[in-house]
Specification:
Elements: E1 11-12, E2 25-29, E3 33-34, H1 37-57, E4 61-64, H2 75-80, H3 82-95, E5 100-116, E6 127-141, E7 147-155, H4 168-176, H5 180-190, E8 197-204, E9 207-213, E10 226-237, E11 240-256, E12 262-268, H6 270-278, E13 283-287
Parallel strand pairs: 2-4, 2-5, 3-5
Antiparallel strand pairs: 1-13, 5-6, 6-7, 8-9, 9-12, 10-11, 10-13, 11-12
């Protein structure tokens, strides 16, 4: 199945099978590349670990990165061998069925004096440093290596949430950590992942009336989002196969229930949807 960009006009991969709920998607994670690897390899590795933390904590992904491949190196060695490491991540990601690979680039890092610590403190007289940096995160199609989405994060401007740190590494981490929520929103919005109809919440006269799906606020879902569901099947054309999409039903989200759940009313095609759900058919959902 080809990867679909999750944005306006996005495609949400929807596999109608309660057995799928809870399964983790495999996703490749490349090491972040520093434009100046001789100077900023530690900062690049800190960003890599932050992205990995976000993916793992989401509980949606099984992360395939250099560590899971048994490549254990120092930050400096990672930057020296980053091209071959990232190529191996993509290769293994394809084998493991990963739809997406996450990559990125650290483009700029500098440190400036922030302020002196208050008098009568244990560290009186020492100055804090403030990290100023920018980096990009890319969503890459594992099959074609095409960049599907990219976003640049700029940190350390006047509206920073961090006052800095005593060391450069502490200052960098203190500036990076407040970005956790922004990284979560970006990654969860644009990384295509299978979701499931967990249950038929209401049915009447042999037709589904309301369903529960495992997508919510974290994925950008909101009330009145309209979704069309199609059944997927393979059709032989000569000596090759092509994928057919046959319309099944239209649904509309009527309420989000937190970060991962929403209920949707069936607007049209309730009988067909109930039948396909019970027979565990493979379907795809396209937002309208």
């Amino acid at each position: 199945m080809k990867i679909m960009k999750m944005k306006k006009g996005l495609f949400i991969v929807l596999l109608i099978s309660s057995a799928i709920y809870g399964q983790e998607e495999t996703i490749g994670l490349q090491s972040i590349k520093s434009v100046d690897p001789s100077e900023n390899y530690i900062e690049a590795e800190l960003i890599s670990q932050k992205v990995k933390e976000v993916l793992v904590n989401s509980r949606n992904y099984k992360v395939l990165d250099r560590e899971s491949l048994g490549i254990v190196l120092t930050e400096q060695e990672i930057q020296k061998q980053i091209t071959s490491i990232n190529a191996k991540v993509v290769e293994q990601g394809r084998i493991a069925g990963a739809k997406n690979v996450i990559g990125g680039k650290l483009t700029n890092v500098e440190y400036k004096k922030a302020l002196s610590l208050l008098k009568k403190s244990k560290l009186e007289g020492q100055s804090l440093q403030r990290a100023i940096f920018s980096f990009s995160i890319d969503i890459i199609d594992a099959e074609t290596s095409q960049t599907l989405e990219t976003k640049t994060f700029k940190v350390g401007t006047l509206n920073t949430k961090s006052l800095g740190g005593l060391t450069e590494q502490e200052a960098f981490l203190n500036a990076l950590n407040p970005l956790t929520k922004d990284l979560e929103k970006f990654l969860n919005k644009f990384v295509a992942k299978p979701i499931a109809i967990l249950s038929i919440e209401e049915e009447k006269g042999g037709a589904a009336k309301k369903v529960l799906i495992n997508t919510g606020e974290t994925n950008g879902a909101k009330k009145n989002d309209k979704i069309s569901i199609y059944e997927l099947s393979m059709v032989n054309i000569g000596d090759k196969q092509t994928q057919r999409e046959k319309w099944v039903a239209d649904i509309k989200i009527d309420a989000t229930e937190g970060e991962e759940l929403s209920t949707a009313v069936v607007v049209k095609g309730g009988e067909e949807l109930l039948d396909k759900f019970n027979s565990k058919a493979k379907l795809i959902c396209k937002s309208k």
